[in-house]
């Protein structure tokens, strides 16, 4: 029986642990040759070692798969291109990229520094651009390819103390949609996953109150392995026609997110003044306002 990714070559960034590791392992088990990228940095993006990527490569090879390690930074366009070219050189082609690499530097906005904002946006948003752009030339030439980007409900819905992370993750959703539109003519797909999974990226959640402890206990039920099947599906030929979409995976649940569209309108034949907006427009629109919620307010039920 043919496997979902037989003959394909995929790059998974940030694959030394957590969600990326499980995607790399499952992609290999589904027949793909994998470029396992991981900088080996701390959660804040400091330090560097290739040992994490090499350990995942060893796991893949021990299971009979094929993989190579890469320790480059996705924030460097040349390093991102080198990741793609390493796959092409070693395995002959590149078919998919999973943009999973990420860091966190949480902090309330009034305390956030430029450096912390810049570092997070560069890894998540610029990193997704760098690897995708490097792959795009090969995808066009072979008239096919798949991009899978990791977004987050922190950006799609909202979260406290994550202005940098939220901005990057919502930016990734818009980026993915634009790439899907631009690359459609070459049969290139671009989609997003908002993963719910216990990993290093969310292990810094505070556990100072009983509610926070209970929330973390629920999150620990949602393993990174639950996210991998969706990523592998989106990389496979079975996902033909699926592009420009935003999915979420929460334990055994799969969600499709809506995307911004007008929900209500008001009209004035002569235009508006500020007073008229306050008196007529806002009262008519208020019932459709999006509430100031965080992800936990929207996904308020236990994972199943």
From TrEMBL:
**InterPro entries per the UniProt record, alphabetical:** KR_dom, NAD(P)-bd_dom_sf, Peroxisomal_Beta-Oxidation, Sc_DH/Rdtase_CS, SDR_fam
**Entry GO MF terms:** oxidoreductase activity
Q: Which residues are the signal sequence here?
A: none
A Pfam family: adh_short
In this protein, which residues make up the domain named Ketoreductase?
Answer: 8-201
**What domain of life does the UniProt record list for this protein's source?**
Bacteria
User: What is its EC class?
Assistant: oxidoreductase
Which keywords belong to this entry? Oxidoreductase
Looking up SUPFAM superfamilies in the UniProt record yields: NAD(P)-binding Rossmann-fold domains
Question: Which Enzyme Commission numbers does its entry carry?
Answer: 1.1.1.-
Q: Which family does it belong to?
A: Belongs to the short-chain dehydrogenases/reductases (SDR) family.
- Spell out the protein name for this chain: Putative short-chain type dehydrogenase/reductase
Organism lineage reads as:
Bacteria, Pseudomonadati, Pseudomonadota, Alphaproteobacteria, Rhodobacterales
């Amino acid at each position: 029986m043919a496997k979902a990714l037989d003959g394909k070559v995929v790059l998974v960034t940030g694959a030394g642990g957590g969600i990326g590791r499980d995607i790399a392992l499952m992609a290999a088990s589904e027949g793909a040759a994998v470029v396992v990228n991981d900088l080996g940095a701390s959660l804040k993006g400091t330090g560097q070692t290739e040992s994490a990527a090499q350990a995942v490569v060893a796991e893949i090879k021990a299971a009979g798969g094929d993989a190579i390690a890469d320790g480059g930074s996705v924030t460097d366009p040349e390093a991102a291109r080198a990741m793609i070219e390493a796959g092409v050189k070693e395995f002959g082609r590149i078919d998919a990229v999973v943009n999973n690499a990420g860091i966190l530097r949480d902090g309330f906005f009034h305390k956030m520094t430029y450096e912390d904002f810049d570092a997070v946006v560069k890894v998540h948003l610029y990193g997704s651009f760098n690897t995708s752009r490097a792959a795009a030339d090969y995808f066009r030439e072979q008239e096919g390819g798949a991009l899978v980007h990791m977004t987050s409900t922190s950006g799609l819905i909202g979260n406290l103390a994550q202005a940098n992370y939220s901005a990057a993750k919502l930016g990734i959703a818009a980026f993915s949609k634009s790439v899907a539109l631009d690359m459609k003519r070459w049969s290139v797909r671009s989609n997003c996953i908002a993963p719910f999974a216990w990993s290093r990226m969310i292990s810094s959640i505070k556990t100072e109150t009983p509610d926070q402890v209970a929330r973390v206990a629920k999150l620990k039920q949602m393993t990174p392995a639950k996210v991998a099947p969706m990523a592998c599906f989106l990389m496979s030929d079975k996902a033909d026609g699926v592009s420009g979409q935003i999915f979420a995976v929460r334990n055994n649940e799969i969600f499709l997110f809506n995307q911004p569209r007008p929900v209500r309108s008001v009209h004035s034949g002569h235009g508006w003044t500020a007073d008229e907006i306050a008196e007529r427009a806002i009262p008519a629109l208020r019932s459709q306002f999006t509430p100031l919620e965080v992800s936990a307010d929207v996904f308020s039920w236990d994972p199943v």
